């Protein structure tokens, strides 16, 4: 979506918020920075550009990439000029080349393209890190290393496209509403935290702000000044105290099993005694969590008797 496609007669932020809320208030954990309106997406696809040196390994790499579901076309280029022409012509091109080739290409040409360094030594891998390549593929490669490399590349491209889409949308909104991007994000976050929709929890991790639905939290474990939220989706590490976090959740479903762990009883499958005075909770994801004697007597004993 481009800013030009977002014209409206209303200048109110309220007119735009529902588009963000579709992501913010979904039942899945959502990164606020990626809370963009739902749009139809094509299958993620790229064009592979390989610097040829006449070796059978690179020819074999080209043949394998041609069969990959996310690769629509493969160019095996013999010189810098042909590589440059392809990169300039295709914005979705991914370059597979050695460090020497990357160093000789114009930075203006490669800056917007993911680059995978291909080489045969640990020294090449270190050079790839110095060149800020998105990955390194050692030749001769095996199927597992190539599959992992492609997975990381495609994941990086997807994240970059999401960031670009969010940036375009946010830029259009800030211009339209006459507010800064920081003010826009702050408004969204405050609306999320004060929403009448029950239980939405805004948390900040080292990766950004997330909105988590309490029903998706299986359990919370304290580790010093940090908490780990184990959810039905991904897990999150946040800076908080356990008491503070439970207070924010404000739900009787969250019950302590020890000084450092609180579980959501809606995700408890059963309670079992595995040794004298030793009790465990079986969670719905297969995890086993030990209950301390103090908290078993205080709550879980009664729970077991009425379960």
From TrEMBL:
Q: List the keywords (alphabetical).
A: Two-component regulatory system
Limits of the HTH LytTR-type domain? 201-296
The entry lists its GO molecular-function terms as: DNA binding; phosphorelay response regulator activity
Query: Where are the annotated coiled coils located?
Result: none
Which InterPro entries does the record associate with it?
CheY-like_superfamily (IPR011006), LytR-like (IPR046947), LytTR_DNA-bd_dom (IPR007492)
Q: Which domain of life is it from?
A: Bacteria
Query: What protein name does the entry list?
Result: HTH LytTR-type domain-containing protein
- The species this protein belongs to is Alteromonas aestuariivivens
